[in-house]
Amino acid sequence: MARIGKRLKKAYEGVDSEALVALEQAVSMIKARATAKFDETIEIAMNLNIDPRKADQALRGVVSLPNGTGKTLRVGVFARGAKAEEAKAAGADVVGAEDLMEIVQGGKIEFDRCIATPDMMAIVGRLGKVLGPRGLMPNPKLGTVTTDVAAAVAAAKGGQVQFRAEKAGIVHAGIGKASFSEEALLENVKAFVGAINRNKPTGVKGVYIKKVSLSSTMGPGVKLELGSVASL
């Protein structure tokens, strides 16, 4: 604990928590401060001028990061027959139908993303209380209820990120690792922010993006100049 405290103290030295920094400079600063012995995750947090409780201000979607997330995602697929075989061939970690439902009901969830063919939703629907709170419930709008399970598995494994605004209008996600090059992180940030901009809810009035910050797992956050991300 003492070592972690010293590392955090060093990372925060000379940091102005209120300073606004251009995107390119912010990425450089975040990488320089990610000095932990493990490969820290780089995260983005966006404070949006929305109230997700209102239907015309809800925000949810997916975006494929051009350079992936650096995280190995475990994918579970509910499918039968040929579709189950397609999922396995595409690299799904867990594939099944009623048997997989029973495993999940028993409290064993060995996947970070859940995909299902449409005919499986009657089964998956019984798992709503288990999968829903974990954000794992398959959804057609997110491409996780589909007949093209191979493409869905490939997208999940290839760096596709799901996003959803929380009650306070905050969206956050991991957009890479500290070991990524600055160029790769910049491309991922631009892809993520671009997706948020493209999915702007119809009910938004006034300024859409209020604040944006980048941070690493063990490092301080850096606030971005809105002008460097507003038009992405």
Automatic annotation (TrEMBL):
Keywords: Repressor, Ribonucleoprotein, Ribosomal protein, RNA-binding, rRNA-binding, Translation regulation, tRNA-binding. The keyword tRNA-binding applies. The keyword rRNA-binding applies. One of its GO terms (molecular function) is tRNA binding. GO terms for cellular component: cytosolic large ribosomal subunit. One of its GO terms (biological process) is regulation of translation. Belongs to the universal ribosomal protein uL1 family. This is Large ribosomal subunit protein uL1. The gene is rplA.
